[in-house]
Specification:
The chain is mainly α and about 400 residues long. It has 17 helices and no strands. Helix 10 (about 215-235) packs antiparallel against helix 17 (about 365-390). The model is unreliable at about 1-10 (pLDDT under 50).
Length: about 400
């Protein structure tokens, strides 16, 4: 059987490994920035395009749907093409899509541009996850992924607030121009970091074959519950904090930042670990995450307590996401690119499912009810993971 081996870890100098790790972190930062930045500048974009915010918001939906389709159909090319070509090519396509977004003359143009961005992300994100695990030293996969996943936290804590600041002073088009330039630089970085490192897998693995690999389907079910709960809750976090504590939009944004800080600190902590991270009990992690959702009933007493709860939520989610992605990579073997594509497809399906499920709950019962519903959904994932460990 052909084994996927991008390079011999022992032969790589530590400086090269760090160069690669930071390139992968920057890749996730790009994806997170593109995914999150439109929401806070929605009104400015709508005004600039002479339309309403609902039509501009459709660009977010176009991005999510395109990402899911791309991940399910194209991500497996990471298993059979040179790493630098695939990752850098996807980042360049993302740069083009962002440049076109900044040049948009109407909401339909913006939607089509963000759909193109979704095609790029559907390759770039699973490729980044698969590469992070495959190029980590033995036993350090979770540590490597924890560090790389910190890019999501940076996009929330740094990139999104910076995008809002740039939009306020230089206009929303400047935001996409800067992001496009950054994507171009990261594309060059990825090309250099993984130059001459071909995949040794030559046979394409279709998504439906990857889905049937032992242990993959249960992990994807767990991932779906995990992501549905997250996106459904995060969508109403800001509004929930505003209603609970009578805050401004900026004040409510501090709680999203708290989540990002917790997620980022946990990722850095994983990255600094010198020993392996293999004996974690996924069921216990999922139970902890469920408890963090249920804990919003207690946390909404004072803003400091809610801030702490958001940070704890971020820490636990980093732990859960790292564990799930590492487990999927291990199960994927030679087809880890296809498996990561399935993972991305599941994730972006949850982007739709989460808010759709939680919207009516929030409207009827408030944010604490959203937390209860999220805890219930995650408990399903905990049950699947417990059954998986018992079988």
């Amino acid at each position: 059987m052909i084994r996927m081996s991008y390079h011999t870890i022992a032969d790589m100098p530590n400086s090269v490994r760090k160069f690669q790790s930071f390139a992968l972190l920057a890749s996730v930062l790009l994806v997170g920035s593109n995914a999150f930045l439109l929401s806070p500048i929605l009104s400015e974009v709508a005004e600039g395009l002479g339309t309403d915010t609902i039509r501009v918001a459709w660009a977010i939906s176009a991005f999510g749907a395109s990402t899911a389709i791309s991940a399910l159909t194209l991500a497996s090319i990471i298993d059979r093409m040179a790493l630098g070509q695939v990752l850098a090519g996807a980042a360049l396509l993302l740069a083009l899509a962002q440049a076109l977004s900044g040049l948009s003359q109407g909401w339909l143009w913006l939607c089509m541009s963000q759909a193109m961005a979704g095609i790029a992300v559907g390759i770039l994100l699973p490729g980044t996850y698969a590469t992070a695990a495959a190029t980590a030293p033995p036993g350090r996969e979770a540590a490597q992924l924890g560090f790389v996943l910190t890019g999501w936290a940076l996009s929330l804590v740094v990139a999104v607030p910076l995008a809002a600041l740039v939009a306020e002073h230089a206009g929303w088009r400047a935001v996409y121009t800067l992001l496009s330039a950054m994507s171009g630089l990261v594309a060059l970085w990825l090309a250099l970091a993984f130059r001459g490192l071909p995949s040794q897998v030559r046979q394409r693995t279709p998504p439906w074959h990857a889905f049937r690999l032992p242990g993959v389907a249960p992990l994807l079910v767990i991932m779906f519950t995990f992501m549905t709960a997250f996106y459904g809750t995060f969508a109403f976090l800001g509004e929930g904090m505003r209603q609970a504590f009578d805050l401004s939009t900026q004040g409510a944004g501090a709680f999203a930042m708290a989540y990002g800080l917790g997620f980022g600190f946990a990722g850095l902590g994983l990255g600094l670990r010198t020993k392996g991270f293999r004996h974690i009990n996924l069921a216990l992690v999922m139970l902890g995450i469920a408890a963090s959702y249920a804990g919003w009933h207690i946390a909404l007493v004072t803003p400091p307590l809610a801030f702490l709860a958001a940070m704890i939520w971020g820490v636990l989610n980093q732990l859960g996401l790292s564990t799930l992605v590492v487990s999927l990579n291990h199960r994927g073997g030679d087809a880890r690119g296809a498996v990561m594509g399935l993972n991305t497809g599941v994730t972006y399906t949850a982007v739709f499912a989460g808010p759709a499920i939680m919207g009516p709950i929030y409207a009827g019962f408030g944010f604490t009810a959203v937390g209860t519903a999220a805890a219930s959904i995650v408990l399903v994932g905990a049950a699947v993971s417990w059954k998986k460990t018992r079988s």
